[in-house]
């Protein structure tokens, strides 16, 4: 499990960094910040959290606590980076920057990183769905 997990995690992080750099370089709207439902935190970023953790649930079933801890630690990391001016090579660690309601960059890089409790809920919902699907494919019975 470890090697596959680390490879998927590294690819995911590199994708996020690449996406952020592309958005900043082209000054394009961050389409992932648009809500897909009328609820707080129901945006494209939440959907990516859900999809990644559904994949983890399918590939690594029966590890609910492990992935809950990963989810909480990541959100704490985002909260820390968002509330502290973390510097790398003399520059503030910012991937994209904040966006207005229309998705266009505002030029304010202060509030891009933010941990959300709703992301933990999306992560675990995705994980449980992936785990459930894997178990159903294997033909396992579920305890009531």
Instruction: Give the low-confidence spans.
Output: 95-105
How far the N terminus sits from the C terminus, by CA atoms, comes to: 28 Å
Order of helices and strands: HHHEEH
Question: Spatial order of the strands in the main sheet?
Answer: 1-2
Strand content: under 5%
Tell me the domain tally.
1
- Tally of extended strands? 2
Mean pLDDT: 79
What Rg is obtained from the alpha carbons, in whole angstroms?
A: 17 Å
Cα shape = globular
Structural class: mainly alpha
- Measured as a percent range, the helix fraction is 55-70%
Specify the biggest β-sheet.
Answer: 2 strands, antiparallel
Helical run tally:
4
Would you write up a description of this structure?
- This protein has 144 residues and is an all-alpha fold.
- It has one domain (2-138).
- 58% of the residues lie in helices and 3% in strands.
- It has helices spanning 2-26, 44-59, 64-83, 117-138, and strands at residues 87-88, 91-92.
- Strands 1-2 form a two-stranded antiparallel sheet.
- Strand 1 and strand 2 (91-92) form a beta hairpin.
- Helix 2 (44-59) runs parallel beside helix 4 and helix 3 (64-83) runs antiparallel to helix 4.
- The longest helix has 25 residues, at 2-26.
């Amino acid at each position: 499990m470890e090697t596959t997990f680390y490879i998927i995690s590294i690819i995911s992080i590199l994708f996020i960094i690449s996406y952020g750099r592309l958005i900043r370089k082209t000054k394009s709207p961050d389409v992932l910040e648009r809500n897909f439902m009328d609820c707080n935190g129901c945006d494209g970023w939440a959907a990516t959290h859900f999809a990644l953790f559904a994949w983890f649930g399918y590939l690594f079933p029966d590890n609910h606590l492990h992935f809950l801890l990963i989810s909480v630690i990541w959100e704490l990391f985002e909260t820390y980076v968002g509330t502290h001016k973390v510097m790398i090579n003399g520059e503030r660690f910012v991937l994209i920057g904040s966006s207005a309601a229309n998705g266009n960059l505002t030029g304010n890089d202060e509030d891009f990183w933010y941990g959300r409790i709703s992301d933990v809920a999306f992560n675990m919902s995705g994980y449980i769905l992936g785990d459930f699907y894997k178990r159903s494919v294997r033909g396992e019975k579920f305890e009531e």
